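Anyone? Bumping this.
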Amino acid sequence: MELQKFTYDNKITRLFMNATILWGIVGMLVGLTIALELVFPLMSGGISWLSFGRLRPLHTNAVIFAFVGNGLFTGIYYSAPRLLKTPMFSELLGKIHFWGWQLIIVAAALTLPFGFTVGKEYAELEWPIDIAIALIWVVFGINLIMTTVKRRTKHIYVAIWFYIATFVTVAVLHIVNSINIPVSLLKSYPIYAGVQDALVQWWYGHNAVAFFLTTPYLGMMYYFIPKAANRPVYSYKLSIIHFWALIFLYIWAGPHHLLYTALPDWAQALGVVFSVMLIAPSWGGMINGLLTLRGAWDKVRESPVLKMFVVAVTAYGMSTFEGPLLSLKSVNAISHFTDWTIAHVHIGALGWNGMMTFGMLYWLFPRIYKTQLFSTKLANIHFWLATTGMLFFAIPLYFAGFAQSLMWKEFTADGYLKYPNFIETVTQVIPMYGIRILGGTLYITGVIIMIFNLIKTANAGTFVATEDDEAPALESHASVIDKGHRTLEGKPLLFTLLALAAILIGGIIEFVPMFMVKSNIPTISSVKPYTPLELEGRDIYIREGCYNCHSQMIRPFRSEVERYGDYTKAGETVYDHPFQFGSKRTGPDLAREGVKTGPLYKPNSWHYNHFFSPQKLVAESIMPPFPWLIANELDYSKISKKISVMQTLGVPYPEGYANQAKDELLKQANEIAQGLRNEGIDVTDTKEVIALIAYIQRLGTDIHRTDGSSAFTNK
Amino acid sequence: MSAILFLIVIGIIVAAGFLLIFIWAVKSGQYDDSYSPSVRMLFDNEESIPDKEEPLKKKS
Amino acid sequence: MSESKCVHCGADNGNAPVVWNEKAFCCQGCSTVYQILNENQMGNYYRIQPMSGIKVITDTQSGKFAYLENDEIRLKLLDFSDETVSKIRFFIPTIHCASCIWLLENLSKLDNAIRYSSVNFPKKEVTITFDHNKLSLRKLAELLTAIHYIPEITLDQLEKSHGNKSDQNLLIKIGIASFSFLNIMMYSFPEYLPGGDLLEKDFKNIFGWLSFILILPVVFYSSLDYYLSAWKGLKHKIISIDLPISLGIIALFLESSWVVFHNGGIGYMDSLAGLLFFLLIGKWYQSKTYEALSFERDYKSYFPVAVTRIVDGSEEIIPIKNLRKGDRIVVRNQELIPTDSFLLNGNGQIDYSFVTGESVPVAKKLNDFIYAGGRQIGSSIELVVDKEVEQSYLTQLWNQTNEKDKEISLNTHVNKVSQYFTIVILIIATLAFAFRLTTSLELAVYVFASVLIIACPCALALTIPFTFGSTMRIFGRQGLYLKNTDVIEQLYKTDTIVFDKTGTITLNRQIKTAFHGQKLTESEIIEIQSVVRNSNHPLSKALYDNLPKSTLFSIQNYEEHLGLGIRALVNEKEIKLGSPLFISADVSNESFTESRVYLSINDIQKGYFSFANTYREGLQQLISKLSQNYELHLISGDNDSEKERLHEIFGNKTNIHFNQSPSDKKQYINLLRSSGKHILMIGDGLNDAGALSSSHVGLTIADDVFSFSPACDAIMEASKFEKLINFIHFSHTAFKVIKASFFISLTYNIIGLLFAVSGNLAPIVAAILMPLSSITVVSFVTISISFLASRKLK
């Protein structure tokens, strides 16, 4: 019998490749925009969809899911068929996957800037898009797994293992974290609340970093580095150990994002321990990647591809060392909520994901277009721009992080906060934000040069739509018994995965009622659900992405309690769907903003004016103005639906409250608006700003109430 | 903290799934040879090896 | 041109390269392979790794694989076969680089009857699925031979099926243990970590339950080997290290289950899972094997699979085991003598180098008795079988020696320690139990279990695998391959070293020549060299190598008279080299034991070349160092012609014995053993096999570690010979490390016991002490071994 001939489809690779480049530059430009907005807060010019709070989710989503996402699909669609010696299972599924994914990205780009968001970081997209993601992801999974099943090599190369793990785990993470109850087509509430929601969210958030940004790229590292250097990986055995150790460890590290929060201490500590353990497999992988190039450093000096890979793997090593470091409680006390976190993630994104992607593109283009790279010199220039760009980006932010943290925590000899005014700590770091813009600009310039270089390369060559290869069939003919094995062999994999999905869905259905009905968070009797107006205000708070700059989580440190008020208790957040702990304090914490006796309290009129023009009240403020809140009418048409969804989720509104919600809302709005009018502000009852003020003035007040009464009248 | 329990259950299920896959991999002889695959993946089909690598080198 | 390297194999082309297509090759064989690959567009072979080919020195005769036509043999060799396809696994020792993998996996390009082939590089095996209707097994073997990947097909391949199921099982056990360990650790940590006191009761219960479920596969599957081994030991009235381990596991499990079901906690499940995880990792670390090396070879892996028998004047091929006394067989050039027999016909030139290490062929006359194991050089001979294979001298010798002392392993260091250890622990546990009984039964049981738990000698048990595992790895990197880690302990105990002579302390196939007779002119020397270059006879080769390199003359009328000599015309002179008979020399009044090649030019007798062994480099220094601490013996199968020199090297303390037959050697070792000596035997050939297996450590010296070596405990690269003493010394270093590590782990045990006896063994203490002691011990031994090796083995 002869060799079986088959072809590799480069068209799908090219599609993903082009999408990677397109979304890459888009995501980075959005990033640059929001970096500029931090220095020039008036830049958005009062246009709602250009404001920082709305563009920041667009930036993170574009970079993670559009740029890195398409990047990893490029890598997988190119390497998996070649490693498995078979074309991808289905060209059609590939196309559905590609166009579906791009459609999702477009949908994200069309919803996020317009305020359609769930309000959970890296999982902001609303439920219809979430469902689309799940479906497309399954399409990808079927395509990948069936390709593996139909392979012509007995052994499954380690990269494929990483890809499969990516598929399985991301599917689970995405589904678990995206269980929301819809209010309307573009509005929904997560079923979890407060601390629980935070835990699920960061379990997802952390593992998404692990299984979306790391494992597929590790698989690509194990494919493209050996290929580019033309030498086998340093230790294949180590790569297998690397894989299994990472898989078994990663999934437990999530809680380290919630240190010093209202999460139980033991759960926090657990996250720390597992995070620290992670350093071993991560560094094992890094060392394996770097040592692959041992004895080939002359090649590295010549080849921009290898140079980029080296920086990428080094950045991976730095990030995976820094990660456990940041998850140590004492370090986290300093780093959390500061720009240190931003620096950390950008080492990963710019260094690890970015450089791996660029290296891969420089390697792929000449191959797919059957020519040589247009200019190695330009690629080298890109390399240096990207590397220095990274440094100019990260170093100032590390500095800013330290500066912020030290200033926040500093006390005078008399026992007062040295910088009681938050704005003082902001103005200090503005120059650092400036340098960061320089870093980002360098990096983007590099990418533009790359695009030019790649277009020139493509024009010089001719596109090879399909590549022929031949390989003997995998012993499928050997015997009837063997044949049986052969078909069965692939099936357990698929079967396991399907079983996994079934169990998960079943589990979720069974568990959901449990969440809604009962939660053993210590309840605080004075904590009551939000009034309808506050709920609407909260939704505006989420819509505007306030959580991107303002945390609502006072940690039990003297400096924080002094600055913001009593630390946050788990029981205070039980009605927060979603939680709004935040992860970054570009502005002050708002958890006790409404407490009249608190250090941050401001009257309604102050808030009104502040939303209109922050700079009028705090000259150095870098908060953008929100004029549209003042102009827009509040849409409260869905309030009764919202209340009944909340009731489904276990929020104890009295029975039938949904029907009276609108009246309650209007009544409270009138009170606030009347107050403002009394102070000479010309405002009607049902402006959006009224709802937002109502929410903000509610924040943190429940446990300070002694009379047991509530802003909303129950019974 | 029912969410913790929920996540733990999911964690076990996922990990158990991977354990099964691990057992399958070992049993089907995936790890019998821990060297050859790393070399094998370097092999390309006939014409693509020399013609691309060398001009690239000459350039730089 | 003269300095060029062969495009195929990288060997020196010499000054008369074979040229094809403007490419230079060292020999016709290499050129042929290049042409084959070139025609099939398989030039990648040379691109993946330049000059990756293999040079084949001896021409393989065409009938070599004829026996593969025999159905009985064929079916036994095949892994699988149906109407159309067959699957075969060949051992090909010459697999050495990436190109080999590529070529062997692209065999289908050479012949489309081949459907699938895959290489297992560490094992140097290729598995091929092929269509046997289009390509017979014989043709397949010949195809591989044509491209110089000569499969090694041996008798024991017919009889043994190799598998590595135990490796796989160990891996699965580790996988399960690590899965359970990580999960249980997660449930247990909250109890120890700050804030753990706030852990809700419900959670504690659930975590306990989950831990209990997860520990079950660990206790009932992953730890199985420990119970079995402990039980086996007990049956033989031996307390091995596995006994206290098993006791510890059971105590941990019962105690923890009690805690889970009665107190709603988690108990020591995490410690238990961690313990097993570490122990199994230790096992895995120690189980490193050199897959392509074989330490267990007997005559079966050396002897041919089949022989050619003559029945009624026609030849037939039969499996070797069907050979009967009185059968007439044909042995061709380069074939092995399969059994003891008499020479019936032809000119016997038997190369016994694999048997004795002596590389100069022995001439045999008609009706001479020929021992099995030699290789015929020259024309075919006919033999009459005297004994069946199983009864021939060499195989007999082998079959006797399989009773290698198994008791040794029960007497090992660690088992001695563990005996005392176990007894002491049981006494402590009982005493503590009795003492606490005065307070309450429950506390007494708790203390008893605690003692067993904390005394579980995990760290102790990890010391040996990791120390020996590391040592074995380092030895391997330095060129000494051990069969298993037990050999290190045997090496350590060695007090007596026995050497074989030929091939062991002398260089195999490297011979010194000297000329005796009329002085030769320079041009005569070149003429001689020009002639011997054409011969494959070992003596010709030795002669060629020993003469100074120079530009050769062309020769005419070259003739090789097998068993006699060679002649040719050079510069119009007739040069004859060979036996006295061949050049008509009269040697009747001379008696000599060494090998000689006589020379005549134009029928004028010029004298003879004598051939003598060369001793390995550094032998003198090695011996003088060894003789300070060890009793040395030399047993040689040869005559005493080199007695003087050997005494010079070995000094007078050494016992030197000549004319030792294989069984003499073995008896000699047994004699030494019975006088209580602990023996390291160093040999190389089949004739040492008995002695090697009778000694405590049998070490084989091999020029090519992948090619044949007799059954032994260790194989050493010949080039590392002078380092022998460093290796032996390092086994002592390893033991020092072990003792230090024992001390560390016992310290941990004592600390733990203090907690246990006082009834205060909280899970957190166990959870900290157990992994901490394991990690300390493991890192201590591995780091110190590699550090010490870098200083002492360089």
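Late reply, but here is one note on the structure posted above: The longest strand of chain A covers residues 4-9.
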